Amino acid sequence: xxxxxxxxxxxxxxxxxxxxxxxxxxxxxxxxxxxxxxxxxxxxxxxxxxxxxxxxxxxxxxxxxxxxxxxxxxxxxxxxxxxxxxxxxxxxxxxxxxxxxxxxxxxxxxxxxxxxxxxxxxxxxxxxxxxxxxxxxxxxxxxxxxxxxxxxxxxxxxxxxxxxxxxxxx
Length: 170
Known about the structure:
Elements: H1 3-20, H2 32-35, E1 37-45, E2 53-63, E3 69-77, E4 82-90, E5 99-102, E6 110-116, E7 122-126, E8 133-137, H3 144-156, E9 165-166
Antiparallel strand pairs: 1-2, 1-8, 1-9, 2-3, 3-4, 4-5, 5-6, 6-7, 7-8
């Protein structure tokens, strides 16, 4: 088999593989002052840190200096206790939209806002590797039509929702 044929075949197969790779999700633009405040977790593809949470998951954002957000996470555990974790999410130098790195966790995960209702009633936050996802709402329950909009925003960004876990809120 001629050498140039093998090289051409390998190059073609490599390019074909790239054609099927999903492009990274895109972070949306936000108004940090409007985004700040309390959000309720409606559903998630949870992280290992969240496995102890059984309900009443909330996150409160406060605008911090230099474009950062202070994050205060809370949830109810199976024993009825409140677990809490707080820290700073900082935009990387070359951030495009609402891209953050959660510097209070190790390893430091990327945390991107990839969907947002025009009236800030819901938000979709995910990792660029599409392994974690949160659907957040300003209220403990999200009407079905708005939940479907949030789910569509996640799907449009290439997230698979088969293992989405819905969060009980009181």
